[in-house]
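Key idea: predict the complex, not the pieces.
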Amino acid sequence: MTEPVQTPQVFPTRVFSGIQPSGSLTLGNYLGALKRFAQKQNEGIETLYCVVDLHAITVWQEPAKLRQQTREIAAAFIASGIDPKKSVLFNQSQVSAHAELAWVLNCVARIGWMYRMTQFKDKAGANSENSSLGLLAYPSLMAADILAYKTTHVPVGEDQKQHLELTRDIANKFNHDYGVKFFPVPEPLIEGAATRVMSLRDGTKKMSKSDPSDASRINLTDDADTIAKKIRKAKTDPEPLPESVEGLDGRPDAKNLVNIYAALADLTPAQVMAQYAGAQFGTFKPALADLAVEKLGPITAEMNRLMAEPDEIDAILGRGAERADAIARPIFDDVKDIVGMIRSRQV
Ligand code: AQP
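Result:
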């Protein structure tokens, strides 16, 4: 019999994060996630990035569209600077440890924890009894994504903070229930000026790929004219930009555009204010549009080039899945030992 595994309390730094193929990516996904994923990779840390297709089907997805969107997200990762030789880039459903570990963690997590998640409440809406069971269990699968690799750090946008806290609770409860120090308790990395990019139509609402209004977001697939038009029409107030960042308090639409400018230009909001204090939106919006086109144009062009080669994308994802599986499989075998399952053996 194999004894439960005790691992050291200090875990090597490992970054994991994912994006759902539930629609075209937005500027929010780029600034809050993709751009920062590439920065982590370039810091020389071990990085794993995943297109989380199992998450996407918690709400209905057309099968052919899901496959197309999975390739599109993979293309967006690469076009944003993820190098599949440096990072492990793959899609979730090709690595079965995610679903297997999710089941074990479903039995560790409590139903009440799931009902408290604001994303579940938002997505399930008034008729929550009719939402999929997967939508309720979504955070437990997310915990499995992260813990399957003994991830220590998870770069995400602000909206995922609550799910990350739940992952920490699940890791702690697993360790406590089984009397082991097996899973690290992962740290969220929520950094920079664009941890919560807001809708262009309502500065109090998150920019989201599933918002019914296309004018609310900039898609990574938008061309230069569309980007410029959406920024020109973005909701603002009649006041000029203030002298300081504090002057943006109570002006969510203006604050959002300043934060977007800062994140795209790699400046702080204070540096943007120093440049544009007193400027009217008639001056600031065209400058923001030029900057957005300059930064996003090359990404869109590279995505389009890659999307013309779906076999190349599938091959990259296949190689990534093999590498991911090589890390996750022995960890899941240890989980089986800890839980009391008999691990499969070659006969
Ligand atoms: N508006 C945003 N600002 C900053 N970061 C954001 N992220 C999403 N929207 C913003 C970050 O992008 C990563 C991937 O998100 P996801 O696709 O897994 O799901 P999500 O967070 O639910 O994003 P969406 O766009 O709102 O998708 P739908 O509409 O499908 O639910 C995460 O790190 C997220 O924080």
